[in-house]
Request: fold
Amino acid sequence: MESINVPALITAVFLLLVLGAVLWYAARVAVPLPEAPAGPPTGALAMERKIIAIVAMLAAMALLFLGYGFREPARQVQAQEQQLDTSIDRGIGSFTTLCFPCHGEKGQGAIVPDSNPQRLAPALDRADLRPTDADTRTKEYDFIFKTIQRGRPGTPMPTWGQIDGGPLLDEQINELTLMIMNGDQQVDYEGKEGTPWQHTSDVITANVAAGLVQMPQQPDVTSQPFYQQLNAQQQQGVTVILQRGCGGCHTIPNIPGAAGTIGPNLGPHDNVPPVSQRPMIATYPNGTVPNNSVDDLSKWIMNPQALKPGTAMPTLGLSQDEATAAAAYLYSITTASQ
Reply:
């Protein structure tokens, strides 16, 4: 329910009372006095009627503008919602043209085409990319916009913004950013209601059926020998790692395409042990966050900013079960490949 603008309501009532008083007084003045000569009023009486008419018009104009003011906030909200829907629609068009081969037909992530070794692009249909807090949304918008505009060094993510030599205008990047940040919102696209990710899936599926494009390649893990040896919680952890695109930043043994170099390699390499044998998290060997158990690692995965403010590790919005499952799989790693 919309809140009531009390000051504006009081002003409107006051103006109505003024207008009513003026009209009442005008009606009395319109009746000529018994001793008044026949014919139109003259002198002071005529001037008084003019003043009354002017005051009445001013009061009526004030009421008119006040009524417009009552409507204006709702009109602005409606206009903003329409503009957002238009931007999301255009973002869907850009995504289904340019972005789906790497990020999946419904934003679930995919193996980057022609990458060697295989690289996994992160999922974009994620709750952590849709924060509700205003300040967090502003920061997330800036992060997504700049990532699209400038790319990410050390990953397959290229530069898309024209300012850095890419093909997209800032407004097109804005539309993609808004689509990603509103991925769970119901919008009308080409006469059909659904979320942006449902629409992108429909478009790509139709294009695949028409032979125009190929469906993005998804990593195959469930048939791998290492996966069959995991318990149910560890298998869930593999799913979480794939869905959240952890391999875009980290190298993670056995996960197809998980060859990121931005974050630490989570498997054994050179003289560094697997993550389960590292006494500290974040920086080996001199980190600041203890790593003595699956529980320690799950706390880090769930909310790294709380343990090390300013760390490059993002808060992914995982549930406790998801974070624990991911930690359980990482703790199961003993060799670079299993």
